[in-house]
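Exercise 4. Each item below gives a protein and its sequence. For each, produce the structure-token representation.

Item: Alpha/beta hydrolase (Cellulophaga baltica 18).
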Amino acid sequence: MKRILILFLLQISFGVQAQKQFFISFDGIEIAYTDEGKGTAVVLVHGFINDGSSWNATVLKKELLQKGYRVIVPDLRGNGSSGKPQEEKFYTDDAEIKDLQGLTSYLKLKKFTVVGYSRGSIITAKWLTVDKHIKKAVLGGMGIDFTDPDWERRILFANAFAEGAVLTEETKGAVAYAISINADVKALHYLQKHQPVTGPIALGEIKSKVLVVAGDEDLENGNPKALHSAIPKSEFVLLKGNHNDVYKTDSFSKAIISFLK
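Answer:
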């Protein structure tokens, strides 16, 4: 028993990736996830050109496990070890939201918290509008701009990942990075093209408690304070840092742990 405890603590300390499990979603696509710890469930939703492993080295995941939370981390479809269908139809009609609802139902979660970051916050915002099982949610690294169905930045990156795209200074780095990690470029194109949109009216009807948290150098996705203003019962925390670093920090973890209490 002592040896098992030591191994568990070592995994938490050094961010060893838990063994991935799988479930079959509503349309037959296999969704990968990890499920660690016991206690109140927290689902961590990753961002664009990423997968669930992006949470492994964060202070937040380590501290959630240390403080007795159950941490569930999916790879969204088209990413990581989850299925990457090559037909566009598999990315339409909020398929990612249906995957997450299917996963939490499969795991028999009655009440749980969701922490999204970057594009994961866009997914989480839409999920909040259709699922009463979400007790609390965190929208990290995101401003108000995703509420616009014609958001230029979304369209810019959707086009950048299309076959034969002419890249711009703003997009060529992202595409090069995706290729360097063997991400599925076609899936990324469809994910951006059919990214969920949650308008201000829908945000205003959210009943769950929400924390909006962002870095003070992170305005590429619009004003995070405006997102906070659009959501009733929401709290707002502004931290020092930029989009790519804030979610890994001690201050990010502290803000979320405090919100969860």
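Check: The chain has ten helices and eight strands.
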